[in-house]
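pipeline stage [seq->struct] | target=histidine kinase | organism=Marichromatium gracile | residues=955
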Amino acid sequence: MASNALRNFFVLYLGALALIGAGVAFFVAAEIRHAHAVKAVADGEMVTRAAQLARQHLRDAISDVEYLIRLPALRDAVAGRRADAMPRLARQFSLYMIANPKFDQLRWIGSDGRERMRVDWVDGQPRQVAASRLQDKSGRRYFQVASALPPGGVHVSRLDLNIEHGIIERPLKPVYRVALPVFSDAGERHGILIANYLGAPLLDAVVAAVGDDGARLMVVDQDGAWLRSQDPADEWGFALGTQVSLGARYPELWAAIQAAPSGQRQDESGLWTWETVVPLQEVASSLPPGSSEPAPLVVGPQDHRWTVLARLEPQQLAAMYGRVIASVAGVSVVMALVAALLCVLITRSQFRIERLNQALEQRAEAAEMATRAKADFLANMSHEIRTPMNAILGFSYLLGKMTLPDRAGVLVGRIQTAGRTLQGIIDDILNFSRIEAGGVEILDRPFDLAELLDEVRELMALEAAEKRLNLQLLPVPEGCERLRGDPLRIEQVLVNLIGNALKFTERGEVTVAVERLREAEARQVWLRFSVTDTGIGIAPSQQRDIFSPFTQVDVSSTRRFGGTGLGLAICQRLVEEMGGRIGVESAPGQGSRFWFTLGFEVLAPQEVGDDASRSDEVGREALSLAGLQVMVVDDSEINRDLARTILADVGAEVVLADNGREAVDWLNAHPDGVDLVLMDIQMPVLDGYEATRQIRANPALERVPVVAVSAGVLESERQAALDAGMCAFVGKPFDVDEVVALIARLTRRRVAARAGRRQPAPAPHYPGLDVERGLALWRDAKRYRRYLRQFVRDHGEDARLLGAVDIESGERLTHKLKGAAGNLGLTDVAEAAMALNQLQRQGRDDTEEARARLQRALDQALASIERFAPAGAETPPATAVAAGVDPERARALLGELLAALDSDSPAAIKPLLADLEGLLGPSAVETLREAVEHFDFRGGETAVHRLAETLEVRL
């Protein structure tokens, strides 16, 4: 076994090293790419700056010559107007050269080609050349070209070494020349003005402009000859006959430079970055044409180019890569050590697991216990998740029935939606687990297909309406109305497919159809159900796996459609369990059509019993539990309070028990005390299973319905509940209407009005007050009347107050009034307040008519409230308060209760409420207790203040 452990260690460690190596290699490659990219960008910026500086030097040169040709002394010398014109011109040339030490010579050459004036830069000073030393330049190319230029024309020569008397001047002096023709005021040609610019300052300035990296800069001409190189021996070799050009040394690089004016290239010689400057183009761009004259003529060598290059040599790249690798090496070593430690721990764990497995193989009973432990874990996990969800959905259900500000109502709705979505996700996961384990039972019973489709329509209609989609269900094929099969599973598949269609459809419609495929034999038919949408569609590559678990249509990081990816997998398994097939037809952007086929036995009309319709009727009717006694057994205080509040809200009287033992003892002492028991399963002291067995052991209690209420949803738990003697199973979180309907069915209780056989008398009409809507929301008529009276007190003067407040305060007032009126069924007031609020938000001043409309609606509503809920009906008379109450004791209790109500904590409120009830009597605190039981803490604060007024106690 030790040798196996050692082998496992090496296998794990080598695998871990391989993963670490792959990860490190990926990271190093990414870091090298990043460092390379950063350096490439930096070199590009450096070369661009250098090229821009070269361009600027050329433009400055043109500006210099244009300035010099306009000197008055030159004009006078050309016209012969002043005897001192030539000395003055020489002085001005000299001063300009001192101010701009980039000139080698400034010359005026006459029309005959002889120099008329020449100033040279000698030993750091400008010096005028004596007349005897002036030369004949008529044979020079630059003179011939510049002399023929029209006014404003410019000639630019190449950058090359200066030659005097046919000999290259030493030390080497690279220069380039800029010449302009000289004309008199009368337009007569008088030679040219030419400036010889030193090339060395230009090249040095280009290099210095980019800082320390300037040492890597090179400049070559149009032939690839080096004007500036990292190796000085390469420079000006084209003139000296000693150098190989860039093109000869790096032919592929030179070809790339000739093909593109700027770019980057990496090869075995390094990383090259370049940008090309064309002098003639730069000169032309610096000489914008006048409004009436033709564009200036710029002449010179058409192929003249300067290319600025930067090279990052292979050894420099290698050093950069080495720094990246070195920075990662230390981390890699630490990771390898950590991996070794983890592999040791894993190997030790595996060694222990191997020993345990050997022991487990010898002990079958221990293996069975482990299996049961896994099942218990799954059940406990479900229980732990569903228990808090039950409280979240239940209390949000109760909050939704209260009078809340608009924003709070929206937030409560979102909590309910999110809770139901989470419940659906959990249900999908557990349903899929149950299907995988073969725990799904397919029923075979009569059902009406048309009624099933109507139920599906009702279930999905709200979701379709919220998305403004048309949900269309086509008629059932003739003769296929009554079938035998599993309507619950068919409905589950249809709801899932329709839900998906609505989710992935932004606009258009969803169509549900049923087609007859063929008659298999007498009374047997095959039907195809289809759900067609106009949504986003599914790509062919996704359709192959669309029914696989955890597969989703939208898997992007910005996906808009959530879900577990289990819905379609569940549909496929259910359809296959029923003996059918399922498929999809779709194209991206053109919608989808999901279909499934099933075989059924067709029944005659009389063969479909009335049980289903009667059950459906019960489910659809409005139910009440008025007068019904229900026991709630749960170890969670939150769940007990929730169940008591919900059941009391529909008229039931509730008895609470903390555990099974307490419930059994109470029931044995009061065998006729309750009509039904809601029993939690997992509880301390005595669980729900054993408690139910003991209840069934008492003959006086054997017929009392016991309903299991549990967060566990495994089939084994449901079966265990039935085996223990429970008659139904409700999963947490539960649907309130379904639970109420179940209780009504098990106790055979219904609303008397619905069970009655006579037509009710017409309800009174209250203008501006929708009593039916208000009672549907509040359910409790007494509480509804109380809040109507509170509305009169809080908002009765709102319309008149609007004329005396500013716009901002008025907007808040109408907003609050709109919400309160809407929650109480005061529809006209709500509409008028909303219309006025919209005008206020727009900053409108013309609100008199809207305020008048609101006043009329409010007056009408107040009159109807006075008829429906007359003043004084909801407040206990002062005589209901116990006589001889100690005012100081009452004041202290009321103050403490106000502080507790402000904390919104029932645990802090209830003891104080009990003390106050003992002091004042039950009837005095009835309104306060009802507000607390419905978690209406603000209403409770109002009730406290009214009690203080009644007792004449000052808080």
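stage status: PASS
auto-comment: Residues 2-69 form the longest helix (68 residues). The mean pLDDT is 79.
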